[in-house]
Specification:
Layout: H1 8-33, E1 48-51, E2 58-63, E3 71-75, H2 82-94, E4 98-102, H3 116-133, E5 141-146, H4 150-157, E6 164-168, H5 176-179, H6 191-194, E7 202-207, H7 215-224, E8 230-235, H8 251-261
Parallel strand pairs: 3-4, 3-5, 5-6, 6-7, 7-8
Antiparallel strand pairs: 1-2, 2-4
Helix pairs in contact: 3-4
C-alpha cells in the first residue's frame, strides 16, 4: 500500500467503492432492467390496437370475455412483447377469459423509452381504457404480473379496484432481486411496499429453481401480504423461463378457484 497507514483508509475505500457501485446502479438501472425484444408484430392485427399517439402511444392487445368470465390484465415479462405473449393470451381467450395486455414504453409499438414511471402510466392508461371506455367492472378484473411485470401490477393493485392479483415469479424490488437486501438508493418497482396496501385475493407462483429471481423473493412478498385470502404455489424442478412448460399447475383453473374462494359464503 502507498502512503502512511491509517485505520480510516479502509473505510474511505469502502465508501468510494460503494459510491461508485451506487452511481453505476442509478445510471444503468433502466438499461439492465428493460430489454425490449425485437420481435415484430404479426401481419394479422386482430386484437391489436393503440392508446394515444407518438411518444405517449401505448400498444395493447385485447380480446373480450364471454359472459360471466373475468378479464385478465396481464403485465408481461422483461424480454417479451405483445407478439410473444399473444399465444398465451389467445389460449386464455379460447377458455372464455377476457384478456388485455400492453407493451411498456419502448417495447413493440409503444412510444417513448422504458422506465419505471412509464410502465406505471402504461398500465394505468390500459386500466382506464378497460373500465371507462369498455365498461368492464373492476370486480371482473384480475391483475396478472409476470417477472418485471409484477412491478406495475403491484403498483396498480395498491391504487385501483380489482378482483384479485396474481404474481408470477415476482421480486421484492428490482435491485433486491440481485442484492437480496436494500443496498442502493434509486431502487425500482418497490413491490414490497405496494403489496402491503393490497387486501384482495392473492396468488403467488414461483419456480423453486429460479436463478433469475429466487423463490425467496416470491415467498417474502407472500409473507408481507395482508390479504386474508392468499396462496403460495412453489413449482418444483423449474426455473424462471420454463415455468409455463411445467405441467405442475393449470393457471386458468387456479384463477377461477381463487375468484370462487373470494366470494362470501364459499365453503371451500
Amino acid at each position: 500500500m502507498v502512503g502512511k497507514w491509517s485505520w480510516k483508509r479502509p473505510l474511505y475505500s469502502l465508501a468510494f467503492i460503494y459510491s461508485m457501485l451506487a452511481l453505476i446502479a442509478w445510471l444503468l438501472a433502466d438499461h439492465l432492467i428493460f430489454q425490449p425484444p425485437g420481435t415484430p408484430y404479426p401481419d394479422n392485427r386482430q386484437g391489436f390496437s393503440q392508446l394515444g399517439e407518438g411518444k405517449e402511444a401505448i400498444a395493447i392487445f385485447h380480446l373480450p370475455a364471454t359472459p360471466n368470465m373475468p378479464t385478465l390484465l396481464w403485465s408481461h415479462g422483461n424480454a417479451q412483447n405483445l407478439q410473444s405473449l399473444q399465444p398465451a393470451l389467445e389460449y386464455f381467450h379460447a377458455l372464455g377469459f377476457g384478456v388485455i395486455s400492453y407493451d411498456y414504453p419502448g417495447y413493440g409499438e409503444s412510444g417513448g423509452s422504458p422506465d419505471e414511471e412509464g410502465c406505471y402510466r402504461a398500465i394505468e392508461k390500459t386500466y382506464h381504457h378497460l373500465t371507462a371506455s369498455l365498461g368492464i367492472s373492476p370486480s371482473d378484473l384480475v391483475l396478472v404480473g409476470q417477472s418485471v411485470g409484477s412491478g406495475p401490477a403491484c403498483w396498480l393493485a395498491a391504487r385501483q379496484d380489482h378482483a384479485a392479483l396474481i404474481l408470477i415469479s415476482p421480486f421484492m424490488s428490482a435491485f433486491r432481486s440481485v442484492t437480496r437486501i436494500p443496498l442502493f438508493p434509486g431502487d425500482r418497482f418497490p413491490n414490497h411496499q405496494h403489496l402491503t396496501q393490497v387486501t384482495t385475493p392473492l396468488l403467488v407462483i414461483h419456480g423453486e429453481k429460479d436463478k433469475v429471481i429466487p423463490i425467496s423473493q416470491g415467498q417474502s412478498l407472500f409473507d408481507l401480504s395482508p390479504s386474508p385470502k392468499k396462496f403460495f404455489l412453489p413449482i418444483p424442478e423449474v426455473g424462471h423461463n420454463d415455468l409455463f412448460l411445467s405441467n405442475a399447475f393449470h393457471l386458468p383453473s387456479l384463477i377461477l378457484d381463487l375468484l370462487a374462494r373470494s366470494h362470501p359464503g364459499d365453503s371451500r
